[in-house]
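Re: the multi-chain job from yesterday

Posting the exact lines I submitted so nobody has to dig through the queue logs.
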Amino acid sequence: MKVTIIGGAGGMGRWFAVFFKQNSVEVRIVDKSPRTKEIADEMGVQSLKVDILKAMRGEVEIKEDIVDTDVLLVSVPINITGRVIECVGPEMHDGSLLMDITSVKKAPIETMGRFTNEDVEILGTHPLFGPTTKSMRGQTIIFVPLRKGHLYEKIDAMFKKNGAKIEILTAEEHDEIMSVIQGLTHFILLSFGITLKNLDFDVENARKFMSPMYEIIMDFVGRLLHQDPHLYAMIQTNFEMGKIHETFLAVANRLYELVSAGKVDEFIEEMREAKDHYGDTERAVIDSDRVIEEKINQNLFLERKEKEK
Amino acid sequence: MKVTIIGGAGGMGRWFAVFFKQNSVEVRIVDKSPRTKEIADEMGVQSLKVDILKAMRGEVEIKEDIVDTDVLLVSVPINITGRVIECVGPEMHDGSLLMDITSVKKAPIETMGRFTNEDVEILGTHPLFGPTTKSMRGQTIIFVPLRKGHLYEKIDAMFKKNGAKIEILTAEEHDEIMSVIQGLTHFILLSFGITLKNLDFDVENARKFMSPMYEIIMDFVGRLLHQDPHLYAMIQTNFEMGKIHETFLAVANRLYELVSAGKVDEFIEEMREAKDHYGDTERAVIDSDRVIEEKINQNLFLERKEKEK
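And the result, structure tokens for all chains:
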């Protein structure tokens, strides 16, 4: 099998290049980066000289060799995914497969469907992990298959063999669920991080007063801030976040008002109703206890190592 | 050593009763609960028949045996901690130690200082863990010592022997740091939980689409909702949360406006500035990667166990 990755010099592009290579696939990368060949050499994969930006602007044609592939994986920033698909989709060979790994699914699935002929397989995916993840083992990847064939089956089997959990959704289901899971979680953690700055709160100094739960949350805030801000801006602006943001802001405003007015009973009632809606909070305690216990073990281990130095 | 715990039938009271008993201390509990004796018997500790509520209302006098103790630990809800201290403080014997475990420190420290004579040792503490925690090992306990003597040294040594990390702060430092670490984190997670309800979001169904980081955060939300809502209301209303809430709300409102207006550059700039302020985001990535990796291992382990059934 031959896989060609557009955006193959980027974070996730490289991740999948290495992954496919480890799975005995012939990998070729295409990227606007001037370091593309160097990066390809480091990974031991091939690189193609295609000026994808010029091709998108219609200044050069998509060269035959970019679509001379079994799988074409589009791994470019979310805001240009659509234009890349419009550019390469019509050139794809019958029986090949076009896939993307964008965090939103409605728009790219619609574009992939419209700009390819019906003998091209189409698989929208959303890997629920980032480029620092060590392996596919235990990671969830959402599949939004539009046209399935033998290449779909191959990809599906390969991902599963590597320990991925594959979940099938429609593009609409995906975007509705993910706008809460990812969109709202990011929104909250980023707001937290910016608030720490606006309060001029000294995170490093405060660490020793954080019990493991707070430390884990603080690390998640730092984790998001460390990563590509453009990606997070794109997720916020590409999902339909309006209603979700507004609901959160209304809740936070109400809690603020209840607290400042000392309305303890109403505050408690809000928590009770949220608990009833949430469902199995006892399991949440048990599962988070395990994570917290492990964080404690890790801290003790790191302290011992520090002392041994 | 003899330790008497007021509120010894409650969650944290029982936790410390068991802890002290395991450390060969003679433990006695006092509680308004009608099940106090039963609970004491279960734990293998003594119970005292003192109607603490009546005593607080001045209807009965604090009996001699409640203060016939080395250490008097006040482990009652935060909103009555002050009144309990006012009631028992003046009766305490010279050379004994009065301590509390309230999440706020300014008010109880001030009250303990005012309502005891100067030969009574005073130790404000804030254990950064809840009653579901298995042991003191690796847990942080903040100490706000006001009057230290030999009992302080004993408690300090015992907690450290059990693996606790003791951090010393003034009451003012404690409340300032904790209003962000605990107060703001709770505020954000509870707002998240109530938002899930208001959006009628199906948490259980969405779990399989959560990568480990989102699962951990969702478990933390459930964890908070599962616990005593009164405690969380008390933490919000007893810290000085006004400025912190207002700063957070202003940030979340600004992000909402930036996203809805598609102002990607400003959004990115906010993230960049927050990253610079935060400090070592790379370490946050490394540390959170470890937690995430462990969550994956736990999930795989639980799945295997599930299959074996």
